Amino acid sequence: MDEKISQERRLILRVLDYWHHIRGERPLPAPDDVNPAQFGEDWHDCFLMDLTDDSSESRFRFVGRNLLDDSHLPPDWTGPSGQSLTDCPDGTLLARSAEYISRVLAKNVPISLGDEFTEGETLVKFRSILLPLSSDGTNINALLGAANCLRVPAVAEEKLGAE
Known about the structure:
Layout: H1 11-23, E1 46-50, E2 59-63, H2 93-98, H3 101-107, E3 111-119, E4 122-133, E5 142-153, H4 154-162
Antiparallel strand pairs: 1-2, 1-5, 3-4, 4-5
């Protein structure tokens, strides 16, 4: 993330700072205001979605490489560009990070979520944020999202629980 925008150490708060920066005095920033070059390495933890009337059919415009870890996606996943949220494999960081779209649409504000799930024998603890975007300044028609996680193998999780 551009140092001028945020010096926050947590990804979710850096992305929220960026959203506030591009929003300025407007209620919502536009999708075209999002400039990947200003994110630096953080862009690899972000995604952009174009929304549809049925939010489950919303389409990914971009998904950062850290959210596309091939070892956690099924072999038939063809990649994110143009894919709908329903096409996104269940139980992946990307799917979990985007599943609360309806809450953002209902409240018209950025929403962050921390949660955990399992991938096989691995516990995944994650934080994500969804930030509304609007081409006309009023109606949300896109989302900027970001997520990162900590993967804890089951053996390590048992040791952590015993302490």
